[in-house]
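Progress report, Aim 2. The chain analyzed during this reporting quarter is listed below.
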Amino acid sequence: MSVFGKTLFSAPPFIRWTLTPVLVLAALFLPLMVGAVQPTIPWVVYLVELVFLALLAGFWLPTRYGRWAFRLVTATIFVFAAVVLGQEIHHAMTAGADREGVWGPVFEALIPFVAIGIPCLLYTLRGSSPSSAPPERTFARLVDPESLLSYELTAALAKLHSGSAAFDPPRDEAEEYLGLFLDPAYEMLDNTEPVSPYAMALLPDESVIFVDPVPRPSPATPLLGQLRQALRQGATDSGYLCTALIYTDTQQSLPGRPSTKVLSAEIDHHADYSVIVHLPLEFTAREPLIGEISADIGKYEVFGKPIR
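Predicted structure tokens for the chain:
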């Protein structure tokens, strides 16, 4: 997806507040303007209205619903491109292949169908574009926590799950809350504080809470073990839907290379989904830097892996 598309669908506050008045006015006055010219409103106007309304829904609804609104936007664009191409092909076939230039409009409609329609279809089915893999890069600035590194996180998870089912509600819900789970870590990094391990959980009423570690059975019990035990206990007693364990670790990318500090997030969902996201860190005198994000299948340590 283009930079414009990624920026639009990430819906930062500036984009939302800038485009919302424009979209509302366009949605209200477009049918009136078209109706003043001709009594029958063409189907194109209905599709444009649907795109306006879906964009507004994507901007302002909670993320779990907004992502489907954005998929409706891309689905509508694909349908429009496909219908236009189909109409041109039908017109060319009925006009007769021997007429000069009859296939010219077909090729003109084919270009936007391939360049815009097909990527929109893929985004509708996958929730990401084929080019979503993060570019090869070294360490870069920690972005504004408002964006929560959404593009890089989405790209790493899309790469991990490539070839799996396009629609996976447990996975979608877990990934939706990943940014929220990482928010406290980003704030600590922004304040140049070390990231202390912490745990969070999604409750059945969709509220998110911090989870305190269980008391140490012995002084030798590590904090991560306490937090994992607290998450397992809460999953049984309080019905957690999704949990996160955030901590820093070290990772050696290549033999002979120095190890890198990594911010790790273990995300588990009660409906058979577990993933570990790794965000390589590098600390400078002024600010923390984040390298290329990666993801691995998790160990199902909270809810356990269901028997199939």
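Helices lie at 3-10, 13-37, 43-60, 63-95, 104-126, 150-160, 169-190, 223-237. Residues 129-141, 143-148 have pLDDT under 50 and may be disordered. These observations will guide the mutagenesis work planned for the next reporting period.
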